[in-house]
Amino acid sequence: MKTMPWRDFIALVASIGVVGLGLGATIPLTALTLDSRGIGTDIIGIITAASAFGILAAAPFVSRWTASHGPRGSMIAAIIAGGLSTALMEFTDSLICWGLLRFIFGAAMGVLFTIGEAWVNRLAPVNSRGRVVAMYTTSFTLFQLIGPALVAQMEGRVSMPFAVCGALFLLALPGMVLISGGAHEDDDEPHVSWQRVLPRMLMIVAGAAFFALFDTLALSLLPLYAIRHGIATELALLSATVVLVGDTALQFVFGWLADHVGRRKVHTGCGIAVCVLLPILPFAAGTPWLWWTVLLMLGATAGAIYMLSLVACGARFNGQSLVAASAVVNASWGITSSGGPLLTGVLMQTVGINALPAVLWCGAAIFVGTAWWEYRQGYIERQERKVAPSTS
After folding, report:
1. Are 259 and 127 within 8 A, CB to CB?
2. How far is the CA of 385 from the CAs of 72, 101, 112, 126, 329, in angstroms?
3. How many angstroms separate the CA atoms of 209 and 204, rounded?
4. Coil, strand or helix at 138
5. Residue 391: pLDDT band by 50, 70, 90 thresholds?
6. Could you report the per-residue pLDDT of 115-136, keeping only the tens digit for each?
7. Which structural domains are found in the chain, ordered by start?
8. Burial (CB count within 10 angstroms: exposed 0-12, middle 13-18, buried 19+), residue 155
9. Which PROSITE patterns does the record match to this protein (predicted)?
10. How far is residue 30 from each of residues 93, 108, 214, 343, measured CA to CA in Å?
11. I need a labelling partner for 356 at 20 to 30 A (CA). Which of 14, 20, 184, 221 fits?
12. What average pLDDT does the segment 323-333 reach?
């Protein structure tokens, strides 16, 4: 039975956690700085979306870069690129330059997420993969939650905030150095294209795309949705935080359940739970305890859908195929997080404010549908039986 290399895992989680801290600080800092300069929300949205397009642009090349330079070398380069592109925003007011730098930043984050997610799956023993991946995603989300608070503390106290945020990323480098070569596998294939793995991961892509939509809408449009339903502005702004708290607090529980009850059952069950909870949202707005409870449960179950999609990648793929599959996951994230808020915002303006839970419900229903289709095909069990002996 494969044992857990805890030193490598802790070093990887620490590094990705620091990246999450920098990411959580950079996103609101960018929006607040542009707003203070009188830039309109349309331009702010375009510059914010540039990061998602960067993730999408990098996705087809990550497997090739990893095969050529190794996972550690590729991640170190991406950390440096992310920190440098953030710091350079301090020295220019050009919106075009900011858009370009955010695009580079997004590409660097795409490389980090793709390799980090594949790497943690390689480190995890088969019988505890759910818990191990849950610890990884929980750490990232927890540090990301701290980012906005850090920006608030820097307000008025730090003269070069983007340079400080850029330097934060460099704190991830010591963890990369500590990871031993044992985390790197010699792969039979030097490079695997995303076209080869995509047909074998429809449910995984649907799960990742749904959570990307959920995450971006919770951060961007959920507070507005709450205000339109009569919730006080101060409390409405806390809605996104409550969703993230639910996501952070219960991931290990769902990972444990997946390891003991079965990943497919828990994964699909979370999708069904989201489909049940979302129609309650419009009626919960008038009852504070119900509103916060539904948001916590939505954050927990939606976050588990993404976490268990990563677990499914590790169960189905090995080697460079796993890196390619992780790249597809991040590409689906980039597509949905860039286009989803735009479409939902238009629908909320034209159809009504409850278009928000309706769009999310459709995304969750598509995930449940793909899970049901794969179950009917016997695809999940067949893939797990094929992969498990080579990873244990």
Report:
1. yes
2. 29, 44, 29, 11, 22
3. 9
4. helix
5. very low
6. 888 888 888 888 888 899 999 9
7. 6-174+192-391 (1.20.1250.20)
8. exposed
9. MFS
10. 12, 17, 21, 22
11. 20
12. 86
